[in-house]
Write a structure and sequence with these properties.
1 helix
Length: 60
């Protein structure tokens, strides 16, 4: 059986640099406006949009 998952973090840059490891294909920082243009699975996009939405407990 194969299971696929994604991990999304909402964060603020405070230093350092973003790098890709041998366990990832890519990494990036995106504004809320840039999310709509990302090539992602619709469920992944929905999770990110919910996290960034005005009704979210995490919005702010």
């Amino acid at each position: 059986m194969r299971r696929q998952f994604n991990v999304c973090f909402r964060a603020r840059v405070v230093g350092g640099g973003l790098v890709v490891s041998d366990e990832s294909h890519g990494a990036g920082w995106f504004t809320a406006e840039e999310i709509a243009g990302l090539d992602t699975h619709h469920i992944q996009r929905l999770r990110v949009e919910h996290a960034c939405g005005e009704g979210s407990a995490h919005a702010g």
